[in-house]
Specification:
By secondary structure, this protein is an alpha/beta fold. The protein is built from 16 helices and twelve strands. The chain is globular and about 65 Å long. Bound molecules: beta-L-rhamnopyranose and manganese (II) ion (2 copies).
């Protein structure tokens, strides 16, 4: 018996004895998929400095190679989200072929409206119509890029906002925002959706133009059915109940997906599940209630001091494990406890699932997908990071500047 089987069999038996349909759980796990971000493989740091890692990718093609390694090991990360102009290339056809040849597909396209000096007072909300036009043209160009890459989403986060009361008219900014996004939405082909991401702070200090899920939702409702809200786990005030936001958005059919990461203090972009694994499980618990398909799940992290590919593998594993725990919830018993008004029975049922060690189950499913039972062990044993450090020397294409780890 292999190691995987000897740990798996008692778990599978226990689950089956407890009334679980183990085969159905495994099918759901095998279908689970996550997008990893091209920008999570490249240079990043804090506003105080960047620590370049040997072996980090020099361009988008090498970022795709790292993403392919993560998928090879986990079997669960078949798509890579892209960021423009960071990932701009001369020949999109070549990029598209490289993505496909690497066994991947293009994930969401993320326009970048936060670095050009013209956007100092805002991009699509800017009081200057010429600058608004420039921002809208970038968004329209990203729609084209997504079409050429076969991507099915625009994923938009704006840094727009004001620093002082009186700096600009808040309602006029909202009008400009709504009409700019309406132009973008009008240009979206049927095959693409628009994800609108909110964040309550940074980089503006007074009024953020899309600061919370409610203002994102209102925009989406004004745009049309293919506009949905994207929840980034680092973009709320401390203590906010993110899983409740998930429930509310899902009920309105406006939950577009996630940017997964974890934080201790602000938008720290640490490895998902590393700080608050219970919150992550409760988010998956909400996703599994109500019978809607799982929305787009993307990692949005900044690996400043940790080994980048290993960090991404660990993130995918944390997501896979958290999701599989949510599949173990006895939903019928939970509904009964809720009908009975039995406060702690429902809570215990969640904890039963959360406290199950699902690692053998995930390992078995990964093996069946042709991936690895022990992805981190295999990554280290194969010396991927060392090999890349030898191969990837010389010039690096500029991407995220110093400071992005904090401002994002
Ligand atoms: C933002 C936000 C976006 C990400 C950029 C890099 O804060 O989280 O999703 O695309 O940073
Ligand atoms: Mn994000
Ligand atoms: Mn962020």
């Amino acid at each position: 018996m292999t190691d995987t089987q000897s740990a798996y069999q008692p778990l599978a038996r226990r689950l089956a004895d407890g009334g679980h349909d183990v085969a159905a759980i495994e099918r759901a796990l095998a279908a689970f998929s996550v997008e990893t971000p091209s920008w999570g493989y490249g240079d990043s740091g804090t506003r105080f400095g960047v620590f370049p890692q040997p072996g980090r990718p020099r361009d988008v093609f090498e970022k795709i190679a790292d993403a392919a390694e993560v998928h090879r090991l986990t079997g669960t990360a078949p798509a890579v989200a892209l960021h423009f102009p960071w990932d701009a290339v001369d020949d999109l056809g070549e990029l598209s072929r490289h993505i496909a040849d690497s066994g991947l597909r293009a994930g969401a396209v993320n326009p970048n409206l936060f670095q050009d000096p013209d956007y100092k007072l805002g991009s699509v909300t800017n009081p200057d119509p010429g600058i608004r036009r420039k921002a809208i043209e970038h968004l329209l160009q990203c729609v084209q890029i997504a079409s050429e890459l076969g991507s099915t989403a625009q994923s938009l986060w704006l840094a727009d906002g004001t620093n002082y009361a009186g700096q600009d008219d808040l309602r006029a900014r909202r009008d400009r925002l709504a009409s700019s996004l309406a132009e973008l939405y009008g240009a979206l082909p049927e095959t693409q959706e628009l994800l609108v991401e909110y964040k309550f702070f940074e980089p503006a200090f007074y009024a953020i133009d899309i600061g919370d899920w409610g203002s994102a939702l209102l925009l989406c409702q004004g745009l049309g059915p293919r506009a949905r809200v994207l929840v980034d786990l680092g973009h709320h005030a401390q203590g906010v109940n993110v899983e409740q936001i998930v429930a509310i958005l899902a009920r309105e059919d406006r939950l577009g997906g996630f940017h997964f990461n974890n934080r201790k203090y602000a938008d720290d972009d640490l490895i998902v599940g590393s700080v608050n694994p219970l919150e992550l499980f409760l988010i998956f618990t909400e996703l599994g209630s109500g019978g809607r398909p799982i929305p787009r799940l993307t990692i949005d992290q900044s690996h400043n001091i940790e080994a980048k590919v290993e960090a991404m593998v660990l993130s995918v594993l944390n997501l896979q494990e958290s999701y599989s725990k949510s599949l173990l919830i006895d939903r019928a018993a939970l509904a009964q406890a809720q009908r009975d008004g039995d406060v702690l029975r429902g809570h215990e049922l969640l904890l039963d699932a959360y406290n199950t060690d699902v690692r053998p189950l995930c390992a078995k499913v990964r093996e069946e997908l042709g991936a690895s039972a022990d992805p981190i062990g295999d990554l280290r044993a194969a010396g991927y990071a060392q090999r890349m450090a030898q191969q990837r020397t010389g010039e690096h294409q500029a991407t995220a500047p110093a400071g992005l780890g904090v401002i994002e």
